[in-house]
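Running co-folding for zinc ion.
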Amino acid sequence: MKPPSLLHMSAPCREDFDIPFHQIGDSKLEFSIALVAGVHGNELNGVFVLSRLADYLHGVEAGHIPGLRLNGRVLIVPAVNVLGLNTRMRLWPFDKTDINRMFPGYYLGETTQRIAAAVLEATKSAPIRLDLHSGNLDFEELPHVRLYEPTEAERAKAEWFGFSSIVESRIEKILTVSLIQAWKELGGENFILRAGQAGNLQLPHCERMFQAILSFLERNEILGGKPRAEIEEDQHYFAPDKHFRVITEKAGFFVSKLEVGAWLRAGDLIGYLYDGFTGKVREEMHAPVGGLLLGLRRQPLVFEGDLIARIQCP
Ligand SMILES: [Zn+2]
């Protein structure tokens, strides 16, 4: 059976295409939650996690997973930028626009404006909304939940994912065009989950994100039945403006033996910057502050001024 489609589109010289989605649970109910990934087509972790989650929840609905039941109705869009996903591109392939700069969208506008409008229309009735992202092609991020000028309910529920870090950010007042901003305008409870690096899958991060979403669904009583094992992670809440960006002052090969999620003291070594010809160390990169290594550059070729690491200070 063909899945339902968020938006049907035609193309100049190929067959039409759709943005398919899953609706899982009792069709008489309103959606309890909406989960979206792949707004950026090369952020594969989120797409993979949501497609696996859809399979799992369809299994729960069909009674294939003993002891679990679905109490609510779930909307899942694994890949908004469906053409970008197929061509390994972050942006919409035809006109190279960023769908996450097109909200709230416009039904009579260009394709990406229509996609944005369709995503917003499909998700607006859900009281809880999740948007999944990764770092970019060069940068790996520790799985975490990100809040934007949160309500008390969002702050409280962010803990339910069980991630070690909850990061609070301010809403950009000038660039009011992202999905999270459009959702915030609608009210409800809105979360961004970020994990790993674009362009590839990092299975441990995917597994962590999958478990986090299951925990969240259970705590919201959307998923019911046997209680699952609690995930034991120390939780840390990071207020806005408590993150530090480590920038390189020279070009070269950046190498690091660290893993995202490491706790650093001020002055700890992050990595070395080597000269690509002589092989000599040009710069030692040290942590300017103590804190959690939330993100780390994985693309070794760097230029002056490139971002090397993100450190969150408790
Ligand atoms: Zn993204």
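Result summary
The chain has a mean pLDDT of 94.
The radius of gyration is 20 Å.
Job closed.
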